[in-house]
Design goal:
Helix content: over 70%
Shape: globular
Largest sheet: none
Structural class: mainly alpha
Number of helices: 19
Order of helices and strands: HHHHHHHHHHHHHHHHHHH
Length: 460
């Protein structure tokens, strides 16, 4: 048995051990499973939001982008950090004080039933897109660790099986507690890999000499460009304000102040990871110029000393585990709370709802595996899917900060128009009147909400 395989097996055993321990805390009420009984401390909130953010997109995806454009790709994770800090400063405390379970529950208090149903569908679509991309990153990592055991696709399948299994067993407690181990692995592995690879090259001048000319490899802005960087920041602040999986972390806090501080510290501590992943992508370009971009970072690491390579690649896989678990859980919670309990079986017991949540986790995992087999660029795909959160953020901002403008009918139409913008953007190039889909989403959603408010005879 190879060293890498042994390390991977030990890591998987540890994950399932944590999940079975967490299962004891997750039993009983459905809230214990989906929200950790609302007992998470600030450190657990911090590692959970870091674990959600620093997934395949922030490691493999960033290195894939840096392989092409340079260090500026690290802005993706910085944008995530800024979004988490914004959530902590402005929204986490307010969400926790609402004592809700899902974002659509908040929408239902002031909008129509049709808005709730459409909201659940849109949120689940967003979660499924992001989860599928974790499988892509997970598949590339396992293929790099054990190319004789895993193909790219079989690596995705194995990733899906582990991600679904851990989430199904322990719920939010499992995600939070395993993230303590995951974050140590991610940060330790990334730092070790960066140091080793830089020492191998020798110096910044030597690295620059090995890179193709004409690309601003070490410019922190020029490669991706200010327009894309700004779009990432706007998108990920928007996401942090209204994505169910992020909202669910804040709702799991033991009180409102804990939610606020957990998000702020989580954002601060996730700042350096993207820069390190981007630097490793540049090193990969220098050493393996003809490699497939999505496999660039794993290929760099797999050529390290066997134990360090195994630990570091397990760390990258841990990033996918931490993200996928939270997203699978939130997708299951949305369906069981806002569809099953509200419309299918309103008199269901807490244990029945808990079982339905677990079933939904498994079904969501299977659907996302299919999506993963058909997705391409990690960052390109994820940014389009995340843009849909602008519709939710518009509704939530009105409710939290401008309650005098709440309009019962506006919720549904804002969500519908936000949803329709995405296929329009993908299929009709003429719709690209703004530099990024997130700006068009915000424009359409704000105009739609304001227009419906003005023509609606009954506001509330």
């Amino acid at each position: 048995m190879s060293v890498s395989l042994a390390i991977l097996i030990l890591y998987i055993v540890a994950l399932f051990g944590i999940s079975w321990y967490a299962k004891k805390r997750s039993e009983g009420k459905e809230e214990n499973y989906s929200l950790a009984g609302r007992k998470l401390s600030a450190p657990l909130i911090a590692v959970t939001i870091i674990g959600l953010a620093v997934g395949g997109a922030s490691t493999i995806g960033v290195s894939e982008s840096a392989f092409k454009v340079g260090l500026s790709a690290g802005w993706y994770t910085i944008a995530w950090a800024l979004g988490a800090i914004a959530m902590g400063l402005f929204m986490a405390k307010k969400y926790r004080e609402e004592n809700i379970t899902t974002i659509t529950e908040l929408i239902e208090r002031h909008h129509t039933k049709s808005a709730v149903i459409l909201g659940v569908i849109c949120q689940i679509i967003i979660q499924l897109v992001i989860i599928s991309l974790q499988y892509i990153a997970g598949g590339s990592i396992l293929h790099a660790i054990l190319p004789d055991v895993f193909t790219f696709k079989s690596g995705m399948i194995m990733s899906a099986v582990i991600f679904i299994g851990i989430t199904t067993i322990g719920g939010m407690w499992s995600a939070a507690m395993s993230n303590v181990m995951n974050i140590v692995l991610i940060y330790g592995g990334t730092v070790i890999a960066t140091i080793i690879q830089f020492n191998k090259v020798g110096s910044m001048d030597a690295l620059a000499a090995k890179l193709p000319a004409g690309v601003p490899w070490f410019d922190f802005f020029a490669g991706v460009g200010p327009i894309t960087i700004t779009s990432w920041v706007v998108t990920l602040i928007t996401v942090n304000l209204s994505l169910q999986s992020i909202l669910q972390i804040s709702l799991g806090a033991k009180d409102a102040e804990t939610a606020r501080s957990g998000f702020v510290w989580g954002g601060i501590f996730m700042l350096p990871v993207g820069v390190l992943a981007a630097f490793l992508g540049i090193v990969a370009k220098a050493n393996y110029p003809d490699a497939q971009a999505a496999l660039a970072l794993p290929q760099v690491i797999v050529n390290m000393q066997p134990v360090l390579a195994g630990v570091t690649l397990a760390a990258l896989w841990a990033a996918d585990v931490s993200t996928a678990c939270n997203l699978l859980l939130s997708a299951g919670t949305l369906f069981s709370s806002d569809i099953y309990k509200r419309f299918v079986n309103p008199s269901c017991s807490s244990s029945q709802q808990l079982m339905m949540t677990r079933i939904c986790v498994v079904v969501s995992g299977a659907l996302t595996l299919f999506l993963a087999m058909n997705a391409s660029s990690i960052l390109g795909t994820i940014m389009i899917g995340l843009a849909l959160t602008a519709a939710f953020s518009t509704i939530v901002i009105v409710k939290m900060f401008l309650p005098q403008f709440i309009c019962k009918q506006a919720g549904f139409w804002t969500l519908l128009m936000g949803f329709l913008v995405l296929p329009l953007w993908v299929k009709v190039p003429a719709s690209h009147i703004l530099p990024n889909v997130i700006y068009l989403e915000w424009l359409v959603c704000i105009v739609t909400y304001a227009f419906v408010y003005m023509i609606s005879p009954k506001k509330q």
